[in-house]
């Protein structure tokens, strides 16, 4: 029994029950194939925070398909592409081979004991979402035999980004440390691989693996940096200057600093809290080859142009705080003509400009690419397979007007980066599949 302290609370509860009944009735009578998923939050009585979120998706009836199953996503895995995106969940359903699949995610700030207890708690709700005429027992699927492990290291607040968490999760036998903004909590802002190292005569301790790039787009940006600091500027024994706008947890900068010892990196971050997070939880270290400037990225770019400061490579890896827009990286102000003209001057005739473009709105994407083509003589892009991230490479060098020239030099740079990560002992295997990367480059 649930008690209410006001008429409005009672009305809200009744309305919620009515909506849930309407949804369950609709799911019993119809198949959602060809339509969007149905999404439901499950709450405990009197708890405003959801305990579970369920995505229900259907596919047309076909021979060999099971009728209905529930898939429980272990804690910490809900941010992965397979579970966090409609396309990923569709692929999960194809693998599971069920006509209807209910994908259940578990929320942070909730306590879950065992997988069996979670199944028991969900049983009635999962049954209510089943198709009509289902008589067999509903199978529960997952990635293992437990609910996963999530440890919160710190809860923090930033005036710019709002509430955030630093969490450690277990995934595929690895420990991953993540920075999560609660305003967009199904997206990992930064992620690092945590290794346990043994030091003779001392206790084991945790250490960040700088050779691990969680964000695949960072790998392709690194190839561009390799191109800009070697083939485009082949002078040896001279440090090449790299500007990175957007720090986050510092994973990209730490990787570049370790893999490319001939680079001198300047990172610009508007949020001082992020620098503290990067230093305290992601082992970011500043030295004579790497320093962080707390400043607005646009203001810093303008100052560099006015003071005639040049960089061999400029990278935009900054997100928009307005989640209602169809373009989440970079903010549209970073693609204004004046800013791009400044970048054009800063990189000079041989430099390279790279940006991480994340755009769900095709018209905004086309507009962004048009803006780049208007300023830079040569533009090339690579779209990541499972993500909506697109890395755009821009150059003033006229020789890059053909995709063949881009492929030739980026291929050389990719092989050079693979050699660099091995020489610096960041990895024992190639970081980049060069042939696959080159096959998807487009002008």
Automatic annotation (TrEMBL):
Q: Does this entry carry the keyword Iron?
A: no
What keywords tag this UniProt record? Polyamine biosynthesis
Name the domain of life this protein comes from. Answer: Eukaryota
Q: Name one Pfam family in it.
A: Spermine_synth
Q: Which InterPro entries match?
A: SAM-dependent_MTases_sf
The record's Gene Ontology biological-process terms are: polyamine biosynthetic process
Q: Which PANTHER family match?
A: THERMOSPERMINE SYNTHASE ACAULIS5
Return the protein name.
Methyltransferase-like protein 13
Q: Which organism is it from?
A: Drosophila gunungcola
